[in-house]
Design a protein that fits this description.
188 residues, alpha+beta, 8-stranded antiparallel β-sheet, two-stranded antiparallel ribbon, 4 helices, disordered C terminus
Length: 188
């Protein structure tokens, strides 16, 4: 039985179609309740703010200084090219200065701050300490002294990623948030 000269190209095209169909995520945001998604993502923001408040207080006790910058917002998790992201999670960062005369390496003080915060320490590295507070994970990081606005950064991420309706993808990608309210950072 002869399959003809165009058979390999047709077989390859059919394989590509099957592969793309198999790799396409089963979720595309169509069956997601927008109110439930918003409630979950705003709750993540509140959880991150609560965790940040305790970590910042413990870190200020350990290294002194003040908050110089806070940022927050929703980041996409699963890319749906070219439209955007199918799901999001809340992330925030806080930068602090150390008190004058603090040691150049602050990781030991950050470890003490993590212990004082009462959160679960999940890891330590050369310049950072990792902690978890329920669905919020955080990294306390001794910043290098090159082109940074502070001496310590606290980076926080809420889990899990939350599916949003397809019609809301762009709104969540652009939605701004000032980050945890931890006092006013000094003017630039």
């Amino acid at each position: 039985m002869s399959r003809g000269p165009g058979w390999p190209a047709l077989a390859l095209a059919g394989s590509v179609v099957l592969l793309v169909a198999a790799c396409t995520p089963p979720f595309l945001g169509d069956d997601v309740d927008p109110d439930e998604a918003e409630t979950a993502l705003l709750a993540q923001r509140d959880d991150v703010a609560a965790t940040a408040a305790g970590l910042v207080a413990a870190t200020q006790e350990a290294v002194g200084g003040e908050v110089v910058e806070t940022q927050g917002g929703w980041e996409g998790c699963t890319s749906i090219f070219p439209e955007g992201y199918a799901d999001f999670q809340y992330v925030a960062s806080v930068q602090l200065t150390a008190r004058p005369g603090a040691p150049e390496r602050l990781v030991d003080r950050l470890r003490a701050a993590a212990e004082a915060s009462g959160l679960e320490i999940t890891g330590t590295g050369g310049d950072d300490v990792l902690v978890r507070d329920g669905d919020v994970s955080a990294r306390l990081w001794d910043l290098p002294r090159v082109n940074t606005r502070g001496d310590v950064a606290i980076q926080l991420v809420a889990d899990p990623c939350v599916d949003v309706p397809e019609d809301d993808w762009r709104d969540w990608m652009r939605r701004e948030d000032p980050g945890p309210a931890l006092g006013d950072p000094p003017p630039e």
